[in-house]
Amino acid sequence: MAARVLLGTPVVTAGQALAVLSGEQVPGISFIVMDSRLPAAVVAVLAGIAFGLSGTIFQTLLRNPLASPDVIGVTLGASAGTVVAMTVFGATGAALFWSALLGGLGTAVLILLVAGAGRAGAAGAVDNRFVLVGIGVGAALNSLISYLLTRISTRSAGDVMHWMIGSLSTSTWERARVLALALAVLVPVLMVLVTRLRILQLGDDMATGLGLSVPRTRIGLILVGVTLSALTVAVTGPLSFVAFLAGPLARMLLGRPSFPLAAAMGAAIVLLADVVGQNAVPSTALPAGVITGALGAPFLLWMLTRTPGSRDER
Q: Which residue range is the domain that position 154 belongs to?
């Protein structure tokens, strides 16, 4: 966070930053710190936490490291909802948050229905169908977004494409408050559900025998994961692969799934991507989504080559 606030053009010294944070008005520097860089750093942390938690929910629930909101179409559902609201209805402000949430939830419901989550069958089969159906639905949503972009003006399409990359350049304290409020509500709910998730990992039959309502627990976890992802997409755009990267990296470090560490990893990834994007290329600021996409794509390929062997070992 210090690097995100201090580095850039112009460079802000630590003394100047501390003076501004203590309430002193430093001409030029006060605006840079309080209205530009610090809000971006705070939004980066909150967005990373939300994406990290969301990705870990899906990866743990579906027992598949590839099952992040980016891969299974939930993020694209939120993006499609926002793009439809922007291009068809001209929505702005708070309407975009509701559009992203409805788009993400609608996509999750569609995937659940098509995958047959309510039908009888082995848990692993349902989980695999959920992932495969999600990839297919995501491809359809991507086509919808591409079609909408051809129906609007070049300038509007450019604005939408810039948002679709994922960027923190429009971060404000108001957007930070939205994410903070969402986390303040959803994290306690997730803490309650995580204890049930651990029981669910014993297997559906065992969990049912212990008195757990398996369908209700699954739906509750999916709703929390979708809401975290969708609201964050509405604020920052779909920052590629953050939800996908955070959980596996935390698992590599700790040796087991960890929601707190995944949240910290998500925050670190988004912050690092924004710092690199703002400072890597002189006189050019790259959106954070460009950096996260560059990091996530090779990691996804590595996971695809590694997963079958890992299953055989288990």
A: 2-305
